[in-house]
Design a protein that fits this description.
The protein is of the alpha+beta class. It is built from 13 helices and 21 strands. Bound molecules: flavin-adenine dinucleotide (FAD).
Length: 454
Amino acid sequence: MVDALIIGAGPAGLFAAHELSKNSKLSVTIVDWGQEIEKRTCPAFETGKCIGCKPCHIMCGLGGAGGMSSGILNLRYDIGGDLSKLTKSVPKAEKLVKEVDDIFVEHGAPNEVYGMDSEGIEELTRRAAAAGIKFIPIPQRHIGSEYLSDVINSLRRTLESRGVKFLFNSRVERVGKGEVVINGKKIKTKYLLVAPGRVGADWFAEQVKALGVKLTHGPIDIGVRVEVPAVVYEPVVKVNYDPKFHIRTKTFDDFVRTFCTNSQGFVMEERYDDHVGVNGQSLRAKKSQNTNFAFLVHIELTQPVTDTTAYGQSIAYLATTIGGGRPLLQRLGDLRAGRRSTWERIERGHVVPTLKSVTPGDISMALPGRVVTDILEGLDRLDKVAPGVASDSTLLYAPEVKLYAMQINVGQNMETNVPNLFVAGDGAGLSRGIVTAAATGLLAARGIIEKAAA
Ligand SMILES: Cc1cc2nc3c(=O)[nH]c(=O)nc-3n(C[C@H](O)[C@H](O)[C@H](O)COP(=O)(O)OP(=O)(O)OC[C@H]3O[C@@H](n4cnc5c(N)ncnc54)[C@H](O)[C@@H]3O)c2cc1C
């Protein structure tokens, strides 16, 4: 029997363990499906092609989904989810972000914070506003992929020195009241904190439904990955490494945003059980001539149909079918002209795709017309801030679909309606980023400590 068992060694689980081991005498064990960080390795980093490892090294293991990323800490309470909705107070949410950031710095995150160049930000904000776009300035700390494993291992050492135990390569098969099942073996626990990230979200939703936990569908984001010559986006990434632009489109008044910018990076294929998708990455050792970013339309469904996940999945299946099992690639000029792209047309453009295992085709046959209109209108608008973004040669890869976890209904202490079952992070639909996930871990740990003291 352990006092507190945590599922998931991502930011949510690690920061919960940090708080529990610092401020309580509860025994803590963290279980993770993946491995120690130094054993995590992804073939797609070399080839751009996912071969479907189980567990996926990118998503699973010590450090969680961001463990192999460049570790950008977005130091705003309302980026990667809105913490103030959980804390019911903006100052409390801001304080949480600072606490998370301080712990990262204590464990070796670099001191510099980017996105604070007030002159550059002012100018970019002005240019964006003139184009009817909201630029969201975000102070960001870049841990960098070369340091991230050191920071995470430092956190692990601190936790182990305080008695926290780690079980790697251990997939929790079932969650019950006060117990979990791993490899057919039951482990009893007084408090269970489930932080399984996006990779464990669907499994977890099934588990909690069986336990009678209340959950709701969250919104989804659907769109494309845009690839442009790095020089085109250079003036923007110089001011903010991962610039966030928020756009309301003309025809539908839909919300479109930029997300996950990879300067001189590569577009990557993501392979799921039944569909493909795209993402982006920047590599330490290898640079491309291009910059890519996600351009996503926000979709919420209202009564009587609220299952955004099923809607997003059906779009992803359709895109996969049209792409013959590969992501679709189209030049923006071809999409505008209503014709499919071919390799010959792509070669005529001046952007060389960084992902080659794609099918040149017609994105308008895969994504809903409304989404395509939003993308075309949004890119035309963004072109006023970064001229060249909406050039005919600009490459669009589809589908980029962000399906978030179903949102588990929790109180401020992250406890569900099942007593002593706490949740945190992306897998519970409470966050969408490293800092916010870690912050929900702190909240859950405080909830457990409070309960244990009562
Ligand atoms: C490639 C990539 C790059 C990213 N870069 C950034 C970035 O720069 N900045 C940023 O803010 N965000 C980034 N993110 C998002 C960020 O990583 C996540 O928002 C964050 O890690 C979520 O934290 P979490 O603790 O909720 O879950 P996760 O980090 O996903 O961790 C969940 C853990 O639970 C484990 N798990 C799941 N199910 C089970 C089970 N049944 N049994 C045992 N263990 C299980 C998994 O193995 C995993 O290790 C990135 C994501 C990816 C995929």
